[in-house]
Each structure stands twice: as structure tokens, then as C-alpha cells.
Design goal:
Number of domains: 1
Helix content: over 70%
Strand content: under 5%
Shape: globular
């Protein structure tokens, strides 16, 4: 009953924030929202259906994907600090995006752009796993180092490229939903859908994997194959998201801690709640980014950092994460 109430409550909150996202902005609507449901011409209709709707949908879809990616990352690496940004996925996806755009091989919002981001995210995560020591915090430190290198390479590509407007790609370092449109959503949605399907496919085995590699091996789970599938799932989720809106900090780190505190560590139910809470938090962050200092817009990554970092500190100090799932 508690889980049903939580599920219903967060779903309702997400719907309310979604509606506010459609109504809120610099341009004030002069007609009712209900009127716009059946009328798709005019300034108000264009503002809602062509600008605000893709942005709200993007926040919900990407927030859900990043929330799931964070839960998968912490489960597969059995570390409460694991997060797509820290293990190289986000910086790899950023480099993949900037590389194809700077070279002229693809444009923003294209399938090639999204596919390149996914591919580079996979390569970055595998590189971190290959180079990292097996014990202690070596994995996270290696991830931070690789992320710094990839981010520096992406910055160099922006600096030396002669392609007009390439400097505007620097927004990928902070995240922004500004450029999202209906076409971009159509491109990234299938990638995120594949990532979600793969995530749920590995979720049951992650419960056994949390007991340790040796224990999971004895019950028929191949740890290396499971890690590879999990990394590919995260790459689809994070790569597609980064290709469209850039790197969004702390969301993938914070969401699993909230979910684990609310519903426990079983991964299948964790993924469902992670999607809802991730979508809710990103919708809220985008609303704040657009409205706090109108007419100026704050980079989305700064808002998620300002919300996520203090919240994560409070969570870490007030509760101990439980890492073994109970059936």
C-alpha cells in the first residue's frame, strides 16, 4: 500500500509539473489551456505545442532515463557513488556529440549525432572499467580522470574547429533543454526506449549480482556479460540524452538514493520509481531554470547541482544505503 501511494503521489506531482511547464514562460498565454487542446494555430498554440511541449516531454523522458541510468550504475558497480558522469559515460557522450558536429559529419538532433554519443559513451565506460584497479575507490578515481581527459578533448575540438557557431556547443557542459524540438525528441526517444528495455532486462540479475561476483557466478550469472549489458543500457540512456541537452549533473547520483530510501534495493521496482522521480526532478529543475531570473535562463545543470548536492549530503548523513536486495 505504501508503494502504491508513493507511486501515485509522485506520478501526480509529475503531471502537475508537466502542466505548469506548458503554461509557464516568458510569453504569457492569452487563451485558456483547454482551448488550445483543440486549436493548434496562433501565437499561443505555437508557443505551447512547438516550444513548451517538446521541452516538457524532453524533461520527462530524459529525467526518467537518467534516473534509471543512475540506479543501474550504482547496482552494477556496487558503489553508492557510481553515477553516469563519474564513470565516464556523460563525458564520452559529450565528446561523441561534439566530434561529429565539429567535423561536419552530423548536425544537432540527427540520428548520427545520437548514435555517435551512444558509441562514445560505451567506449568511455569500457575504458574506465579496463583501466580501473579492482579494489577501493580506484574505479571512481579512474572514472573522474577519464572524464576530465574526454572533457578536455571536447573543449579542444570546440576551440580549434572552424565550423561556424561551434562555440555554442559549450552549453553541453552545463545542460540545457533550450534546443529541444519535436524532431529531436523523435530521434532520441527510440534510443532511450532501447536503454530502458535493456535496463529492465538486467534488473533481476542485478539483485543476485549485489551479493558479489562469486555468489552470482554460482547461480548461473555471467558477471562480465551482465556488466557489458548494463553499460550498453546506460550508454543508450545517457548518450541519447547528452546528444540532445548536454550533461546534467547529480540527477543520476541523487535519484537512486531517494528511491532506495523509499522502496528498498530490489532493482526492478527501483527502476520504475527512478524513472518517475527522475522525470519529476528534471521537470522541477527546468521550471526553476526558466522562471527564477526571467527573462534570463539558468543552465539546467547548475539547477540540478544546487538541488542535488545538498540533498545528497543530507541523505548520506541521515541514512545508510542498503545494497543487498531481499526477495
Amino acid at each position: 500500500m505504501k508503494k502504491v501511494a508513493l507511486y501515485s503521489g509522485f506520478s501526480a506531482l509529475a503531471i502537475v509539473l508537466f502542466g505548469l511547464s506548458l503554461r509557464t514562460g516568458i510569453v504569457q498565454l492569452h487563451t485558456s489551456f483547454w482551448y488550445l487542446l483543440t486549436h493548434h494555430t496562433g501565437t499561443d498554440a505555437t508557443t505551447v505545442w512547438q516550444i513548451r511541449l517538446p521541452r516538457a516531454l524532453g524533461a520527462a523522458i530524459i529525467g526518467a532515463g537518467l534516473g534509471i541510468a543512475g540506479s543501474i550504475a550504482q547496482g552494477i558497480f556496487r558503489n553508492p557513488l557510481a553515477e553516469p558522469t563519474l564513470i565516464g559515460l556523460s563525458s564520452g557522450a559529450t565528446l561523441g556529440t561534439i566530434a561529429v558536429i565539429a567535423s561536419g559529419a552530423a548536425t544537432y538532433g540527427s540520428k548520427t549525432n545520437a548514435a555517435s554519443a551512444v558509441l562514445f559513451a560505451v567506449i568511455a565506460a569500457l575504458l574506465v572499467q579496463l583501466l580501473a584497479p579492482n579494489k577501493g575507490y580506484g574505479f571512481l578515481l579512474t572514472g573522474i580522470a577519464i572524464s576530465a581527459i574526454l572533457t578536455a578533448v571536447a573543449g579542444l575540438l570546440i576551440a580549434v574547429s572552424q565550423k561556424p557557431g561551434i562555440q555554442s556547443l559549450s552549453f553541453w557542459n552545463f545542460g540545457s533543454l533550450t534546443l529541444l524540438n519535436n524532431q529531436t525528441l523523435k530521434v532520441i526517444a527510440p534510443f532511450i526506449e532501447v536503454g530502458i528495455i535493456l535496463s529492465f532486462f538486467v534488473s533481476r540479475r542485478l539483485d543476485a549480482y549485489s551479493l558479489g561476483e562469486s555468489s552470482s557466478h554460482y547461480i548461473g550469472i555471467n558477471p562480465k556479460r551482465l556488466r557489458l549489458l548494463a553499460i550498453i543500457a546506460m550508454a543508450f540512456l545517457v548518450g541519447a540524452s547528452v546528444s540532445a541537452v548536454g550533461s546534467i549533473a547529480f540527477l543520476g547520483l541523487l535519484v537512486p538514493h531517494i528511491v532506495r530510501l523509499l522502496v528498498g534495493p530490489a532493482h526492478r521496482q527501483m527502476l520504475t520509481f527512478s524513472a518517475i522521480i527522475g522525470a519529476t526532478l528534471l521537470l522541477l529543475a527546468d521550471l526553476l531554470a526558466r522562471t527564477l531570473f526571467q527573462p534570463h535562463e539558468i543552465p539546467l545543470g547548475l539547477i540540478t547541482s544546487l538541488i542535488g548536492a545538498p540533498a545528497l549530503i543530507i541523505l548520506l548523513r541521515t541514512q545508510k544505503s542498503q545494497w543487498v536486495a531481499n526477495d
